[in-house]
Amino acid sequence: MTEPTPTSSTETRELISFRVGEQEYCVDIMAVREIRGWSPATTLPQSPAYMRGVINLRGAVLPIMDLAARIGMPTTEPNVRSVFIVVQAGDRTVGLLVDAVSDILSITDDMCQPTPDIACENVRHFVRGIISIEGRMISEISLDRLLPEREALAA
Amino acid sequence: MDELEAIKVTFFQECEELLADLEGGLLAMQDGNDDGDTVNAVFRAVHSIKGGAGAFGLEPLVRFAHVFETLLDALRSNEIPGTPDLTALLLRASDVLADHVSAARGLGVVDMDVSAAMAAELKIATDPNAAPAAPAPVAAAPVDAAPQYVDAAPIVIGADDALDDDDLGFDFQPMTITLDAQAADAAVLDGNVWTVSIRPKSDLYRKANETALLLRELSRLGPIQATLDDSALPALEFIDPEAAYVTWSVRLETDQGEEAIREVFEFVDGDCELEITRGEAPAADVLASLLDVAAPAPELAPAAIEAPVEAPVVAAAPAPEPAAPAPVSAPAPAPVAANAPAAPAAKPAQIDVPGPGQSVIRVDPERIDRLIDLVGELVINQAMLAQRVGEYGIAPSSNLAMGLDELEQLTREIQDSVMAIRAQPVKSVFQRMPRLVREVANMTGKQARLVMDGENTEVDKTVIERLSDPITHMLRNAIDHGLESPEERKAAGKNPEGVVRLAALHRSGRIVIEVQDDGKGINRERVHSIAVKKGLISPDLQLTDEEIDNLIFLPGFSTADKISDVSGRGVGMDVVKRSVQALGGRISIASRPGQGSTFTLSLPLTLAVLDGMVVDVAGETLVIPLACIVESLRPKAEEIRPLGPVGSVLAVRDSFVPLIDVGLTLNYRDRSPAATEGVVLLVEGEDGSRAALVADAIHGQRQVVIKSLEQNYQQVEGVAAATILGDGRVALILDVDAVINLRRRGPPLPSDPTLIAAE
Fold first, then answer.
1. Which of residues 55-74 of A touch B (CB under 8 A)?
2. Which pLDDT score, from 0 to 100, does residue A10 have?
3. Residues 6+ apart with CB under 8 A from B130
4. Which CATH number do you get for residue B541?
5. Which residue in A148, B256, B668, B695 has its CB near the most CB atoms, within 10 A?
6. Nearest C-alpha of chain A: how many angstroms from B603?
7. ipTM of predicted complex
C-alpha cells in the first residue's frame, strides 16, 4: 500500500487536485508518479467502458482509466488539454484520465470530512472523504478501490 | 556478506545440486539401474554434502550424512545387497537429508525424532546384526608395530628445491628392498592390517593437496609402512613436470575400520585413485614387476619429490647419500619396508569423477534478467529504426538498409543467445516431485509410483518458476482423487501400485506438461450432481463428457468426500487453472472411466519474446502468435459457405473450417465485413482444432517483446499479452485459443453459457 494512512490531525498531507467534468477530485501526492499529456490508447477488448485502453509508458504497458466513467459519470472525450495522472494503486500502476490538473493542496486531516451519505453507491465506494478548502469542495479518491479485483474476470 | 558466508551460500547451492543428483541416482536405482556408477554417484553426493557441512561445523547435518554415507558405502562395496526396500529407505533418508540441509540453511527445522529414527534405520540397514562397531580383536602383534621416525637428512633427488617440509616432522628415507616373499605372509591374516593404495592424480597437487599429509594422517590411525611405486614414471625427457606418476602402497595396522581410513582421504576424494583392502596385498608378482625397472628414473616431478614418507626403520636399509641424483644402490625403484613388502594392488579402484573442463559459471539471475530486459528494449528500438527508415523511403539495396538488416540479424541472435542462457531444463522442478508423490501417497494410504519423462525439456526461467505450483497441485490431485486405494485397484484387476506419469515436451512453440494417472478416471455422474448441488450449473443443462470433466476447474468445486490434508479444500483445480491462465497457458483434462485421467498443461516457452504476425483488425493492430498460424490466404467468394443463421465456414482443400471474425469476437465492431475483403489466417488451436481468423490486413511478421497486461491491469479474455510496436504504440497479442473458444460459445457473452459461473 503506497497510500499513506492519516496519522494525526496535525500532520499535513499534500494532495493533487484535478477536474473531472465540473467537479474537483484529488489524490495523495505520494501516490502520483507523473502527469502526462493525452496520447491515444490501444483499446482493450472485453473491458468495461471506463477502461480507455493501454499505452506505452517507457516500455511498460499502462492501463488508462477514465475516472469520470469509473465513478459513474459520462465518459470523458479526451481533448488536447486532457491529461492522465499516473498513480500507484497497490502493486499496480495506472493512468487516470482527467480533464485538467488544478493545483497542489496542503491539508491536515481535520479538514477532511467523511463522505456524506448520498445515494450514489459509486461515490461512496471511491471517495474517501471530502475536503473543504477556500470554499471549494474537493473529493479525495480512494485509489485502491479504483482497479477491479484481478480475479474478477479470471474465472 | 563476508567471505565465509559467500562460500556457505555456494555450498548450499551445491547442496541443492547434490541433493538432486542423490535423488536422481536413487530413482535410477529404484528403476533397477543399480550399477556401480549410480551407487558411486549417490555415495559421492552424500559424501560431498557431509564434507562441506563439516567445514562449516553443521553438526546435525554431518552426523546424519555420516550414517547415511556409511550405509551407501556398504552398498557400494557390495557388503549389503541392494533391494527395492533398501532403495525406498534411501529415498526417505534423502528426504530427511534435504530437511537437514534446509534447516542448516535456516529454512525450517528438522524433526529430530524423525531424523533419529531414520538414522537408526540406516544403521540397522548397514549392519543387520546391529552389532556395535567394536574393533576387531587384535591378533598377533605386528613385528615392528611402533613406527620409528627416521631422522635422516632429506634426500633431494635431482632437484634444487630442497625439501623444506621439516615441519612435517618426518623425512623421506629411501630404502633398498629386501624381497622376501615368505615374510609377506607373516601378518597377512591379521584383520587389523589394511593395504591402502594411493595413486594421486595431477589434480591432487594442483589443488594444493599433499600425499605426505595424507600419509601423516594415515599414520595417526596406526603404524604404517609406505611403499612407493614409480614404475609409471616415464623417462626424463617425457616427464610432464606437473603430472603425477607415482603410486603409494601403504600397509596400515589399525584397529579402526575402513570408514576411518576413508575419512583421511575425504578432501582428496576424486583426486586420487584409492583402494583400501583388508589384509595385505598379494605382493610378490607386483614387486617382481617393479624390479624389472632397472634404474629408477630421477624423480623430477615436484609432486613426487615432495613426498616424505614416514617409514619404519629397517636395519638393512642403506641410506643413500643425501642429495644424490638417484639412489644408486637401490635395485628397486621404491623404498620398501623390508619385513613387510606391500605393493599396490594391480588395479586400483576407479573412482568415477566427473571430468574436468566442464566449468560452470554461477551468475546472479538478476543480471541475466536485466540483460534480457535490455535486449528486449534493443529489439523494440531496432524495430523503430527499421520503421523510420522505411518511412523515409530509403531503398532496400542502400547501405543503410542493408546495415539495418544486419543489425536485425544480430539483434535476433543476441536475443536468442540471451534467452538460451536463461533457459533451464524442467528438471529443477521435476526433481522435487518424487518426494511429493511419496508423501502424498503415504498420507492418503495409496501406492503410487512416479514416472517422469522429458526432464531435460528446456524452458525459460520465468516459466520454470511458475511451473511448480500447478504441477504440485495436479500431482496431488492425481494421487488423492485419481488413484484408487490398493484394495480397490486389486479388486479392479489392476496393479495395487498406481502409476502417475509426469511428462514435459515441446509442442508447437509451447511447453506441454502432462500429468497422467491410471486411476479410476472422473466419475462424471458425481461431478455433474455435485456441480448441480453446489449451484455451479443448472440441473437441466446438457453437457458433453468433456464439458463435465472440465467442471472440476470451476471455483468452489471439490469432489473429495472428506476434506483431507492433501487436497479437497475446494481451492484445488480452479486455482491451478487461474494461475496457468495468468501465464498465457491453458489446462485441460481428458478422462476415461476406469483407465485414468490426463491433465494437460500448456505454457509458452518464454514469457519474454514471441514471433508474431502483425495484422489490422477494425483499425486496431493485433499480433497473432506465429506458432499458431498454419497459413494465410485471401479467400475466394465460392470458398465461403454459410452455415446456420450467422456462422460460415471456409473450404480449405476439402475440409471446412469455421470462419471467425476477430473484430467481431473481440467486440471491436458489431458487423463483420465480407470475409473476401479481408485476409484469412488459418490457425490451429492447442487441442488441434482449426479455425480461420478473418483480419482486415496483414502487416508482416515481427518478433515482439511480450509485455504483461496483468502487471498493471488484469487478464483480458482473448488477449494473451501486449507488446510495443515500432511506432511506440501498444499492440495486443491475440490468444488464439481463447478467441476460438469465445466464438464457439456463439455470440459474445460475458461468461461461458455452458456454465453458470458461481459469482
1. 55-56, 59-63
2. 64
3. B123, B124
4. 3.30.565.10
5. B695
6. 17
7. 0.81
Which of B644, B612, B649 lies closest to B627 in space, CA to CA? B612
Binary contact (A42, B582; C-beta < 8 A): no
Length of chain A: 155
Please indicate if any CB of chain B lies within 8 Å of the CB of A48.
no
* pLDDT tens by residue, A21-66: 888 999 999 999 999 888 888 888 888 888 889 998 877 889 999 9
Q: What is the mean pLDDT of chain A?
A: 81
Give the C-alpha distances (Å, rounded to integers) separating A55 from A26, A40, B442, B721, B725: 23, 7, 52, 13, 11
Concatenate the DSSP letters of all residues of B452-463 into one string: EE-TT-EEEHHH
- Give phi and psi for B118, each to the nearest 5: -65, -40
State how far the Cα of B620 lies from the Cα of B719, in Å rounded to an integer.
13
Of B666, B714, B748, the CB nearest to A153: B714
Residue B402 host element (H or E): helix B399-422
User: Which range is least confidently modeled, B80-94, B286-300, B347-361?
Assistant: B286-300
The pLDDT of residue B732 is 92
The B586-592 sheet, strands edge to edge: B448-453, B498-507, B510-517, B596-604, B586-592
The answer to whether A49 faces chain B, any CB pair under 8 Å, is no
d(CA B530, CA B519) in angstroms, rounded, equals 20
pLDDT value at position B648? 84
Determine the residue type at A30: M
Best of A61, A66, A70, A149 to disrupt the B interface (most B CBs within 10 Å) is: A61
- Statement to judge: residues B522 and B648 lie in one domain: no
- CA dihedral of B82, B87, B88, B91, whole degrees rounded to 10: 160
Chain A contact set for B621 (CB, 8 A): 42
Strands B679-684 and B647-652: unpaired
Boundary (domain end) residue, out of B553, B573, B604:
B604
Residues B207 and B131 in one domain: no
- Do B229 and B242 fall into the same domain? yes
Which structural domain, as residue segments, surrounds residue B399?
365-413
Query: Which chain A residues are within 8 Å of B757, Cβ to Cβ?
Result: 155
Interface residue A152 vs chain B (CB under 8 A):
yes
pTM: 0.47
pLDDT tens digits for B577-603? 777 776 667 788 888 888 888 988 888
Residue, of B469 and B153, whose pLDDT is higher: B469
Cell numbers standing for residue B356: 574436468
Q: Are residues B111 and B16 in the same domain?
A: yes
Query: B705: which 3 cell numbers?
Result: 517483446
Close Cβ partners of B739 (under 8 Å, ≥ 6 residues apart): B660, B662, B665, B666, B691, B693, B718
The residue of chain A nearest to residue B578, with distances taken between CA atoms, is A154
Does residue B405 share a domain with residue B298? no
The span from the CA of B281 to the CA of B184, in Å, is 9
Q: Where are the beta strands (DSSP E) in B618-718?
A: 620-625, 629-633, 640-643, 647-652, 655-661, 679-684, 690-695, 697-705
Cα A75 to chain centroid distance, Å, stands at 14
CA angle B554, B558, B559 (to 5 degrees): 125
Residue B508 lies in a domain: yes
Assess contact for B279 and B195: CB atoms under 8 A. yes
Number of domains chain B is built from: 5
Cβ pairs A/B, distance under 8 A: 96
Query: What is the Cα–Cα distance from B20 to B37, expressed in whole angstroms?
Result: 16
Whether residue A122 lies within 8 A of chain B, CB to CB, comes out as no
Looking at the complex, does the CB of residue A21 fall below 8 Å from at least one CB of chain B? no
Longest dimension (CA), chain A: 48
**How many Cα atoms sit within 13 Å of B747 on the Cβ side?**
5
- DSSP type of residue A76: P
Parallel, antiparallel, or unpaired for β B620-625 and B719-724?
Answer: unpaired
Question: Among B470, B370, B384, B474, which Cα is nearest to B422's?
Answer: B370
